[in-house]
Design a protein that fits this description.
single chain; three-stranded mixed β-sheet; Cytochrome p450; 12 strands; 17 helices
Length: about 400
């Protein structure tokens, strides 16, 4: 089997390889990247949960890469977001942005999400195949986050394109170019909002204060870029992966179709079963640590495989089975600890509304192709489908 075939098979179903690695050792050294630099890959649940909350694992990429040769040319607003910071800087930034994603704030967005979902589904033709990814999972989250940030409708297709480019696997040049495009756009949008204030999240961030503390211009741009990227790319894959899981498990699909009120309680199991984020964002050891039974030296990256941890049989019995009765609230798809995804309530609201609408309006929905014909994106960070053809 050639490398391309192996990569395709791994992207389609990485879980057997994860299971083999976990059974051998849940934390092990691996060579990463073309440089062959040593990293440690975490595939066990207990070890992953520890790593995600261990203060000795830093996310400050500026410190790690200082003085190292790098051919990357990412815009600083993309390279050094809140996700790439440690306390007290991270604590300060997160406190200023968390209020936008409370349950109350998300509840206020639900009518907009519902209306937008219905508008997108109204365009689905009843007599032909529909691409659930391109025709719902991609446009819905990007439109929601653009609405939240106050991005004008005329600019949303550009923003969607740049965000997709930022996840272009194996093509760092495209990613770097897109990082400058989106950062420059957000800089201009912030300047425009200063002249013409509104009531969007971006407007609120402009005036956000904690006592005498407020966001600097650089922090504003960085947060705007982070919210844009994280606010829709991962939700797109959440929707696509969840829909595919249900379509491949007809009994579970029928349960939700006959009882849509059960959808909110099913979301954690759908997130556990096929996590939209394969591995957590960058971390490295600031001192030698022991993770599980493995000694890890100082100054090396630690890669937490969230998808692998969610399939650890020590935590979730029969982990390869989709069981909507399972209590999966402890899954790690949104991370854990101080860096847990701040937008988790919004992602769940979008998935709930979208799945309910699909199952209500299209009770006979089914795959238009066999599951092994589907193409998965070849990226390390996110796990999602290129397309999901369905018949209605």
């Amino acid at each position: 089997m050639n490398d391309a075939s192996k990569d395709s098979r791994s992207a389609r179903d990485p879980y057997p390889a994860y299971a083999a690695m976990r059974s051998e050792c849940p934390v092990q050294a691996v060579a990463s990247g073309s440089s062959g630099r040593l990293s440690y890959l975490v595939t066990g649940y207990a070890e992953a949960r520890q790593a995600l909350s261990d203060a000795r694992l830093s996310k400050d990429t500026a410190v790690f890469f200082a003085g190292k040769d790098s051919k990357r040319q990412l815009h600083p607003a993309v390279a050094h977001t809140m996700l790439a910071s440690d306390p007290p800087q991270h604590t300060r930034l997160r406190k200023l942005v968390t209020g936008a994603f409370t349950s109350g704030a998300v509840a206020g967005l639900r009518p907009f999400i519902t209306r937008l979902t219905d508008e997108l589904l109204d365009r689905w033709p009843a007599d032909g195949p529909v691409d659930l990814v391109a025709d719902l999972a991609v446009p819905l989250p990007v439109m929601v986050i653009c609405e939240l940030l106050g991005v004008p409708e005329t600019d949303r297709s550009k923003v969607q394109h740049w965000s997709a480019e930022l996840f272009a696997a194996g093509e760092p040049g495209r990613t770097d170019v897109a990082s400058y495009a989106v950062a420059e756009y957000m800089t201009a949008l912030i300047a425009s909002k200063r002249l013409h204030p509104g009531d969007s999240l971006l407007d609120r961030l402009l005036t956000a204060r904690d006592g005498e503390d407020h966001l600097t211009e650089e922090e504003l741009v960085s947060l705007a870029v982070l919210l844009l990227i994280a606010g829709h790319e991962t939700t797109t894959h959440f929707l696509g992966n969840a829909a595919l899981a249900l379509l491949r498990h007809p009994a579970e699909l029928e349960r939700l179709r006959s009882n849509p009120a059960a959808i909110p309680q099913s979301l954690d199991e759908l997130l556990r079963f096929d996590a939209p984020v394969s591995t957590s964002t960058f971390r490295f050891t600031t001192e030698a640590i022991t993770l599980g039974d493995t000694e890890i030296p100082a100054g090396v990256p630690v890669i937490v495989a969230l998808g692998a941890a969610n399939r650890d049989p020590e935590r979730f019995p029969a982990p390869d089975q989709l069981d909507l009765d399972r209590d999966a609230t402890s899954h790690l798809s949104f991370g854990h600890g101080i860096h847990r995804c701040v937008g988790a309530p919004l992602a769940k609201a979008e998935a709930h509304i979208a799945l309910r609408a699909i199952l209500t309006r299209f009770p006979d929905i089914r795959l238009a192709v066999s599951a092994d014909q589907l193409n998965w994106r070849q990226t390390r960070l996110v796990r999602g489908l290129d397309s999901l053809p369905v018949l209605l």
